[in-house]
Every structure is written in C-alpha cells, then in structure tokens.
Design brief:
The chain is α/β, with parallel strands linked by helices. It has helices at residues 15-21, 82-90, 108-119, 122-125, 137-148, 167-173, 199-215, 229-240, 263-277, 280-286, 308-327, 334-342, 344-349, 384-403; strands spanning 3-4, 9-12, 35-39, 50-51, 73-75, 99-104, 127-133, 161-164, 176-179, 221-224, 258-260, 288-290, 298-300, 354-360, 363-372, 374-377.
Length: 408
C-alpha cells in the first residue's frame, strides 16, 4: 500500500488525487496519519464526498439504519471540489479554545438564537467567537449592543466574543455559518403553507451567501435555519455545484458540509405532548423524529417498538403547534430559535447526536445526525412500520425538491 501526504490526513493508493494536492509519498519518519482515506466509487450528486469509517455512504435511506464498520475513511475522487476539503482535513489542528460561529439574519428566530449562543459559556458551547450580520445596519448595531450586554457578575465562565462582520469576512473567518435571514414571513391569519411561501424570497437572499462561500473556497459548515429548511439546504448544494451550462460541476460545497436546523423544535413540541400525557421519560429515551421541518414530519415514541396511538399524537403535536401559536395571535419563533439552534449548535460542536437535516438519498432530510468533519446521519435499528413511514416521507420530500429543479 502506498500512502501519500505528510499531514494529519493521508491518502491510500491514489497517486492521481495526491498529485492534484501536491502530496508526495509519506515519509517513513512520519508517524501514522490520524486519518487514512481510501478512494471509493460513487455518485457525488447523491452521497457525501468524504465520510468517516462509522458512516455508511449509501445513496439510499439505508444510511439511516445501517452502520458501517470500516477503520478507514473514504472519499470520492470524482468530485473535483473534494480536493480542497482533503487539503483542509490534512492541515494541522489550530490550537484555540473553541470555534468561530457566524450568524446572518437577526430577525425573530435569528435574534433568539444569537441570544442563546451569546449567553452560553464557551466551555459548554464550544464557541469562542460569534460573528453577526444583518442587512439592516441599524438592526445589526442594536444586536451588537444587546448581545454585548449579556454577562454575569463575578463569573469565571467566559462567554463568546461577539463581533460584527460582513459577508466576505464571514467566510474567511468562521468555522460554522448559520443562515437565519428571512423575508416575506406570512402574516397572522395566513392559510397557505407558511414555510413554502418563503422559499423564493429566502432563496434570493441566500444566493449572495452561496456565491461568496464558493468564491472564498469555504470548507466549514453551512447550516440553514430559515424556512423551508430542507429545500434551502438543497439549494445551497445544487446552486454551488451548478455549472454555467446547468450541469453538475462538483466544484462547489460538499453535501456533508451543509445541513438544516429545524427538526429540533419539532421534537421539542412532541416532547411537550409526551410531558402532558405522562410519557416524557420513555419518549425522551426511545423516541425519534424524522422528515422535514413541516407538516410532513413523523415522530415515534419508540423507534424499535412504536405505539401507534402515541406516535400519532406526537406527530400531530409536532405538525400543529406552529399553527396553534399563530391562532393565538403570535408568530412562533422562540421554540425554533432555542430548540433548533440555541441548544442544538453546542451539542453539534461537542460531537453529540442531534436532530438535523442531513444529506441522505440525494436530498436533505431530517434525522438523527452527528458532526464528525462533516454532518452525517447516525443509524439506528427501526421497526418495519417506522422504516415505511420514513421512506414515504423521504419520497415526498424528494418529489418536492425535484419539482423545484433542485435534484440532478
């Protein structure tokens, strides 16, 4: 076996990709690489470009219930853009206490999320610095002062340092980017799908961030918070990898570097139902939510042995709470800002399992996931009825993505 590269990551038996990277044969004096990657065949339009050994890079939903047991990592040489990710993976770790997180869009959800992240001590959140951006300069300045006023007397726990940043600066500095900007939020009383109504205007806002991330060669995490979460995450992957002729280029953002944060609040709404019914302990231990941040979400009280009535009740709670809050005369933004972002991002950075929309079967789909270089689905055994429901939800979302021209 020939090993190429003298950094913390190295390639096995792939001289062609090593040449593109400028990597020679690994010196015998060097220690064993921390990450050994082997090339694999696959479709870069349908599966992650780089995966750790524990993740199954399946193009189907099998990644949600089948765990890989390899000792090495793998990658797709067929994706031209994989080279810059491999180069970053091989770079020595930067000695610093935490990551730099950037958040764009300081509206209702973005403001709540920024407050949570700014108020969580760095040793718990893993965030060293929080960059904030809003198209409204006065609103950005207001939030800079608000977040800068968060502190506790005589506390030794350092909080993230909050700084303003422009779009270009964001992608040259941050490790994680959160897109929370939104336009055209339907007013109270709207009867349409309030999330899909926002797709076109939010996609228009997102475009500038996608272009800047691609131009900067950004290799950090790009996470979508704005609605519709899954379709906007799909937009980032699709638009960044779309050539001028409309074909797949594979030169944009890697699918595992993208994701959506919306499933956290759906789970929280289900758990509130379980708490009222006296099921909280069991549901918190064995329950799972799958699917999009929409009325298509499905929730189970026990993924291995679900109770049909309980699962239906949990699913209804997740689907309907949004409208119930609207019917009370208020816009629902506290739950999403806290459950989908404020408590999820620290868990994500800490390597814990979270609920997020990740790339599986060619689209972004809500499921349990873990951050390990990229964002990947974490598998678990599931009952046949759960598997069927998850498959149906995935098929519906894929059809919706195709109708918007977002699949290859």
């Amino acid at each position: 076996m020939k090993i190429f590269g003298n950094g913390r990551a190295a390639l096995a038996d792939d001289g062609a990709t090593a040449e593109k990277l400028g990597w020679g044969l690994r010196k015998r004096s060097r220690p064993e690489p921390e990450v050994l990657l082997r090339p694999r065949e696959g479709d870069p339009r349908q599966e992650p470009w780089i995966v750790p050994g524990w993740c199954e890079p399946a193009v189907s939903l099998e990644a949600l219930r089948r765990k890989a047991r390899r000792t090495h990592w793998s990658y797709l040489p067929a994706a031209p853009g994989v080279v810059r990710y491999l180069d970053r993976l091989a770079a020595p770790g930067v000695e610093r206490p935490g990551r730099c997180v950037a958040l764009a869009g300081l509206g209702r959800v973005g403001g709540v999320a920024a407050t949570m992240l700014a108020a969580t001590p760095s040793r718990f959140s893993g965030i060293r610095e929080l960059l904030i951006y809003d198209v409204d300069a006065a609103n950005q300045e207001r939030w800079l002062m608000e977040l800068g006023s968060i502190a506790r007397w005589r506390s030794r726990d350092a909080l993230p340092r909050v700084h303003p940043a422009g779009i270009a600066e964001i992608f040259s500095r941050c490790d994680v980017f959160l897109f929370a900007a939104s336009e055209g939020v339907p007013p109270l009383g709207s009867r349409d799908d309030v999330r899909m109504v926002q797709f076109s205007p939010n996609r228009g806002i997102l475009r500038a961030f996608v272009e800047q991330a691609k131009a900067a060669g950004y290799t950090g995490l790009f996470l979508v918070v704005s609605d519709p979460v899954e379709l906007l995450a799909q937009t980032v992957f699709h638009d960044s990898n779309r050539s001028t002729s409309g074909t797949f280029s594979g030169e944009g953002l890697a699918p595992e570097s993208l994701g959506g944060l919306g499933l956290g609040v759906m789970w929280a709404r289900s758990l509130a139902c379980a708490r009222r019914e006296g099921w909280e302990e069991a549901v918190a231990r064995d329950g799972v939510a799958y699917g999009p941040h929409s009325t298509e979400v499905v929730v189970f009280d026990d993924v291995r042995n679900p109770n049909r009535q309980r699962s239906e009740d949990l699913t209804a709670a997740a689907r309907e709470c949004n409208l119930l809050i609207r019917n009370l005369g208020h816009l629902p933004y506290v739950g999403p800002g806290v459950s989908s972002v404020g408590v999820t991002v620290p868990a994500l950075l800490g390597g814990q399992e979270i609920l997020a929309s990740v790339f599986v079967g060619g689209i972004y789909f809500g499921a349990p996931a873990r951050f390990d270089w990229g964002l990947y689905p974490s598998s678990r055994p599931m009952a046949d009825e759960v598997w069927r429901a998850v498959g149906q939800a995935h098929a519906r979302l894929r059809k919706q993505a195709a109708s918007q021209g977002l699949t290859w």
